[in-house]
Design brief:
This protein has 289 residues and is an alpha/beta fold. Helices cover 25% and strands 28% of the residues. The protein is globular.
Length: 289
């Protein structure tokens, strides 16, 4: 799906160390890459629900981009937070992973939504949720007027490494967590004729719910269960448009993709959505068929 050529991206994941250490202890560093690992003790002295976390540092020319991987104490669901300014969703996923295990892959760079490639103070941008196919990657670079062979190579390499960390596989659930501003992206945008109308084959809208809070999945059984629970939800088209999203990537690998979107600040709401989704995916909900 993504071209696999070598190029100038300086950061290389050369070693994946999973070590428990005191917070902030720096473990290793190698040409353009550093990995730190720590145990997050927010949940009290027992550590029974603690998170460990590891940070991978990438260099996009002069720009540092971090990928934090948080892990709970048990295996479980994989959450992904690609937009750095959508912090409510990252917090909600951390709460879930602390409680139930699993992992969160979080992109951090301090630039807001888009990731930057920086050269001599010039900032080229791309949307990190449009880079998982060659077509999407070219389109997002073009959208920001940054399309060049060099940027394609850098972004492709970054996307491949990020995809490797997400590690989508057939039958495995990958949960993409996002936040939006009121009315900007809503469940209504997945209705026929709307902006993402071609991406969905079925849409359920609960008029009593905030349209900013919704699910989007490629799994018919997850969609039906969410509908039974009266959540706003859209079911992905069998052959959705190639936008280069994480959804395209997971769908193409045969994985189960679920996007969970809420308005910024709806932390309790997003936690509840993740809890209900977790119950569905673990078969512990009467709504799943
Ligand atoms: Zn987002």
């Amino acid at each position: 799906m993504l071209p696999r050529k070598r190029h100038s991206l300086q950061s290389q994941v050369v070693r994946y160390a999973r070590t428990r250490a005191l917070p902030g202890i720096f473990l290793c560093c190698s040409l353009g890459l550093s990995i730190t690992s720590a145990l997050d003790e927010k949940d009290g002295p027992s550590g029974s629900s603690s998170l460990s976390h590891m940070t991978h540092t990438f260099l996009l020319e002069e720009e540092k981009v971090w990928v934090n991987i948080y892990e709970g104490r048990r295996p479980g669901l994989t959450f992904v937070n690609l937009h750095d300014n959508e912090n409510t969703s990252a917090e909600a996923a951390k709460v879930y992973v602390r409680r139930h295990g699993g992992r969160l892959v979080e992109l951090v760079h301090g630039r807001g939504r888009e990731v930057v490639i920086r050269r001599h103070g010039i900032l080229d941008r791309f949307d990190p949720n449009r880079i998982f196919t060659e077509n999407g990657l070219r389109q997002t670079l073009e959208y920001f007027h940054n399309l060049s062979n060099e940027n394609i190579a850098i972004t492709t390499d970054f996307a491949q490494k990020l995809a490797g960390m997400v590690n989508s596989e057939e039958g495995k659930a990958i949960i993409s967590v996002h936040n939006n501003t009121p009315g900007k992206l809503t469940i209504k945008d997945f209705q026929p004729g709307e902006w993402y109308g071609d991406d969905a084959r079925e849409v359920f809208i609960n008029p009593a719910e905030d349209p900013d809070d919704f699910f989007f999945t490629n799994s018919p059984s997850v969609f039906r269960a969410l509908r039974t629970l009266r959540y706003n939800a859209a079911l992905m088209a069998v052959d959705p448009p190639d936008r280069g999203t994480l959804g395209n990537y997971v769908h193409n690998t045969g994985g189960i993709y679920i996007l969970v979107e809420t308005e910024h600040g709806h932390l309790d709401r997003q936690i509840r959505m993740l809890e209900d989704l977790g119950s569905l995916l673990s078969g512990n909900s009467p709504a799943i068929d």
